[in-house]
Amino acid sequence: MRIYSEDHLWVDYDQGEATLGISAHAAAELGEVTYVELPEIGAAIAAGGVLCVVESLKTAADLPCPVSGRVIAVNGRLAAEPRLLSRDPEGNGWICRLSGVAADEVSGFMPAAAYAAYVAVPSAQ
Fold first, then answer.
1. Is 125 helix (H, G, I), strand (E, B) or coil?
2. Which pTM was predicted?
3. How many CB atoms lie within 10 A of CB 118?
4. Cα-Cα-Cα-Cα dihedral of 6, 11, 14, 18, to 10°?
5. How far apart are CA 35 and CA 87, in angstroms?
6. What digits encode the pLDDT tens for the residues 69-84?
7. Which CATH fold topology does 2-117 show?
8. DSSP state, 40?
9. Most buried among 18, 50, 106, 125, using CB within 10 Å?
10. In angstroms, rounded to a whole number, what is the distance separating the alpha carbons of residues 111 and 116?
């Protein structure tokens, strides 16, 4: 099930594994992405730590990891096609997969409808 963090990242969580990416809202805010520095496979990332570095025509940003875990896969397409993160952020533009993610870390995240309401209210951000 896809859920969203307040930091505009999505998580597909299933039995301790999570696929992570940015929301369409975050992609629109970033603008056209020109570079993505992916985490290394095997790296342990703590919730709140740097998930990846993204550069766009508008800005450069360290994206915070919404959960803790160990990187088991990265989307290598983003190195060659960073614009994929802008153009298909909730599909082929996924960032990485983590293992060892505790269920309680995702328990407070928002389902799609709640996230849509969250981004529709400017004062909530």
1. coil
2. 0.92
3. 16
4. -120
5. 13
6. 999 999 999 999 999 9
7. OB fold (Dihydrolipoamide Acetyltransferase, E2P) (2.40.50)
8. P
9. 18
10. 9
